[in-house]
Give the backbone structure.
Amino acid sequence: MEVRNCKGCGRLFNYNGGTPLCAGCIAKLEDKFQAVKEFLRDNPNASLKTVSEENDVSVKQIKQWVREERLSFTEESQITLECENCGAKILTGRFCEKCKTVLHNDLSGAIRKPSGTLTAKPKDNHGKDRMRYLDN
Ligand SMILES: [Zn+2]
Ligand SMILES: [Zn+2]
């Protein structure tokens, strides 16, 4: 457990990972989140700026919620996000469906590779090489 200054109100609090906010500010932020969610339900075509101004929440914070896939926008919405990989228009999260698939494949491929090379390496050759070296 470490003590940090809350990013919201500046008070010291016991930080245990995650968002650097005290319990009070997290609760406040959660209230804001619910308000924004309701606002978007009632005003699905509102712009990011309007949502920000009407709910007194920063545009950055709204985008953060969307990146975390807690908020999402409709096809008709004026609010758009760009895929962090290719820049395509997306409605929630960080990547478009195409990049999600590609990134996922890359990831599982990278995990499989090291174990594959390990098992492919013949143990016998290694032993022989060592023997020859010792003979010389
Ligand atoms: Zn705080
Ligand atoms: Zn993409």
